[in-house]
Design goal:
By secondary structure, the protein is mainly alpha-helical. The chain has one domain. 82% of the residues lie in helices and 0% in strands. The two termini are 26 Å apart.
């Protein structure tokens, strides 16, 4: 456990010493703030139009602004992760290999599993630093809106984001361990994310069995339930299994580096 924490501290310090973390987090929060304001303005405009139409026909307006904004905002957060996660994972292992510091890790009394877990937890911490401030937008709407935003949807949505982001980080870490070039790692990771995301669209029109399998493999498909406030056990199993699989593959990839140097 102490070795994992040592790797974790080293990797987290590397993130915040370089400008990458500040650029990624800052740009992510600026885009999130912009789209939250956009969705809130559109929802309020739609609510006013619905209220006017209801008054014209003598019918009450049931347009729920907080729920509409939260669902749209949770959807765009997941979309942003597809673009920002490769920036976090691209240098996890490839940068170590490029600078030659991976050899020092390989010769130290630390196991491959400890190295991989320490780096994964550090990248997940940076992901939390990105994600937590977005809750302030929900808190703002909680204070200002009536009715209040549904806590069930907010809680399930952020749980889904944590699982979704963790799965992407695990996959990105594995792809970063395959190359010495961080740019190539970022391109490979982004392409893999898009492929897994596009599986949901590609399943339409296929045979029933194939369609269900392809639909199940889509990472974004399992997140949709969370964004609607539904915590599905199959989605939990999918994301946890996805993370465990690619963490295991990353351990094997790092182990192969040690074997090639032996």
């Amino acid at each position: 456990m102490r070795s994992i924490y040592a790797i974790y501290r080293k990797e987290l310090g590397h993130y915040f010493v370089s400008p990458i973390a500040y650029v990624v987090v800052g740009l992510f929060l600026i885009l999130c703030g912009f789209f939250f304001n956009l969705y809130l303005s559109d929802a309020m405009r739609a609510a006013m139009e619905a209220q006017m139409q209801g008054a014209q026909f003598g019918m009450p307006s049931n347009f729920d602004v907080p729920s509409e904004v939260i669902r749209a905002f949770l959807g765009v957060l997941a979309l942003f992760l597809l673009f920002f996660m490769p920036m976090i994972t691209m240098g996890i292992f490839s940068d170590e290999r490029r600078r030659g510091t991976m050899e020092l890790l390989m010769t130290s009394p630390i196991t491959e599993t400890q190295i991989v877990l320490g780096k994964f937890f550090a990248s997940f911490t940076l992901f939390l630093v990105m994600l937590v401030p977005t809750a302030s937008y929900i808190l703002f709407m909680w204070v200002k809106s009536e009715p209040m935003p549904p806590l069930r949807v907010v809680g399930a949505g952020y749980l889904g984001l944590l699982l979704f982001g963790g799965a992407l980080l695990a996959l990105g870490s594995f792809l970063s361990s395959l190359t010495e070039n961080p740019i190539i790692a970022a391109v490979l990771t982004f392409a893999a994310f898009l492929l897994l995301w596009a599986l949901d669209f590609g399943s339409s029109g296929a045979a029933s069995t194939v369609e269900s399998v392809v639909h199940y493999l889509s990472v974004i498909n399992h997140y949709q339930g969370f964004a609607q406030g539904v915590i599905d056990t199959s989605a939990l199993v999918y994301y946890v299994s996805f993370m465990v699989l690619f963490i295991f593959l990353t351990v094997r990839s790092v182990d192969s580096m040690r074997w090639r140097r032996a």
